[in-house]
Amino acid sequence: MRLRSGPPPTIDRSRDAEPGVVGLTTPVDTTTTRQVKITFDCGEPAAVAESRKAPLGYGDPPVPPRFDCWEAFNSSLPEEDQGSPWACQDPEGVGPRPFFQRVPGPETVGNHVHLDVRVGTGLRGDEPIVALEAKATRLEASGAPRAHLVRVPQGVCGRRVW
């Protein structure tokens, strides 16, 4: 992942966005400001995640804020969701982040693996959503389907619904 140098962009609400500006006063290249997460739908997320860590050289992600350990986070979830979300990550933060989520049973339709592309990482305030909408518009124009947008306050572990 390459981070943009220089001052952070700011939202300019006084004029319409120009090409390449995406509603920001500083141009943002949303194609390089992103992180990719590969999501696997599976029956036993913890077991699948554990089996992937060693071959990839990955470890556990940091425990979410306000929790001492992953077990405490897991027990804070509703009972039906406990053990459902699981992840591992590259300790150097370079490789993609596999995410494993429980599905109720074998799917007959749909993807068992999909990519979550994070756009506008490192931006603040309304800037990430502006960058995300610009990227979504370009992707939709090329025929990509739009999934769900889940707004999660920074520093809070969110729950995605697909």
UniProtKB/TrEMBL annotation:
Pro residues biased stretches: 1-10
Domain of life: Bacteria
Pfam family, one: Glyoxalase_6
InterPro entries, sorted: Glyoxalase_6
Segments of this protein annotated with the region Disordered: 1-29, 77-107
Domain Glyoxalase-like, chain residue ranges per copy: 38-147
Protein name, as recorded: Glyoxalase-like domain-containing protein
Native organism: Corynebacterium variabile (strain DSM 44702 / CIP 107183 / JCM 12073 / NCIMB 30131)
